[in-house]
Structure formats: C-alpha cells, structure tokens
Write a structure and sequence with these properties.
It is built from four helices and eight strands. By secondary structure, it is an alpha+beta fold. It has one domain: START domain (Alpha-D-Glucose-1,6-Bisphosphate, Chain A, domain 4, 2-Layer Sandwich), CATH 3.30.530. A hairpin with a 6-residue loop joins strand 6 and strand 7.
Amino acid sequence: MLLIVAVLSSTASAAEMLSVEVDYEEGIYTMNSEVWFDASVEQVYEIFRSWDNSTKFSSVIVESRDMPPDEHGRPQFYVLNSACVLFFCKSFERQGYVESESNVVIFAFVIPEKSDFHISNESWRFLERDGGTVVIYDFEMQPKFWIPPGIGPYLIKRKLRKNVDSAVDRIEVLAKAVSIE
C-alpha cells in the first residue's frame, strides 16, 4: 500500500498557477498569467513550440497544426476553437505566424484576413526558477464576431481563466514526457 501511495505521489502534478488576470477594455480582451511547471525549460518549451500539441491540453481547441513557413520563412499555425458560454456556442479560426527564440520566448501573431479576429496575439516567455520553469503568458484578442454586451465580457473572462486552470496540469504531464538530449 505504501508503495502505491509513493508512486502516485511521485507522479502527481506540481504545476502551480502563480497569477492570472483577464481584462476587457474597448472591445479588446487581455490575459496575463504566470505558471510554474515542475519540468525543465527545454521540456516545457517543446510543448508550446508545436501547435500540434494544443489539442492535448486545451479543452477549447478542436483542431490545431503547424503549417509550412510563409514567404518570409516564418513558421505558421492554424487553430480551430469551439467554445460555449451559457447557451452561446461558437467555432472560430485563427491562422497566423510565429517568431521565437528557442527556450526563451514564442510570439504568435494572427493574420486577420485568415482569421475570425482583428487581433489575436500571444507570447510565452520561459524562465528557469526553483528547479522548474515559469511560463509568463500574455494574450490580446479582439474578435470579429459579435459578443453580447454586458454579460459577454464577464463570461469570456471567466472562460479564459477556467481554460488556463484546466490546461496547467495537462501541460506539465506532457512536458515531463518530453525527452531532451
């Protein structure tokens, strides 16, 4: 029995949400969060580097994939999200390009002409801390689709916050499985 408890506790997730803030102002939603993962920077970076991994940790991403580089040589991505807030359900697409510095930062920029957003830009910064990795995430979006005024911003903010909370443990499990040589 003690062996089982020891094994289970050693595989339990230690990921910790350090902060999360979601705001809405003049049609633009922003989210900033910091999460500590019990995995190396290289392992955590590898999970975020590939858009193919997004469906493994996000409950709102239905489809995601890495795409060939654009004419400037920048890697591209495609994401199909589907989410329901109360009785409002919506699927929306994002396509854009990525700029990054390995194991340091990833920037993702949406191409408005190929997306359901005027703005949808994200960044992930990776820092070594306390034997693990802190990911500082910044997100800014302005959808092209209608969101009910009044209650809409509150519900979107709640959904964004909830999605981060539910993804944290899954990201850490995936990261720990990455073999870095």
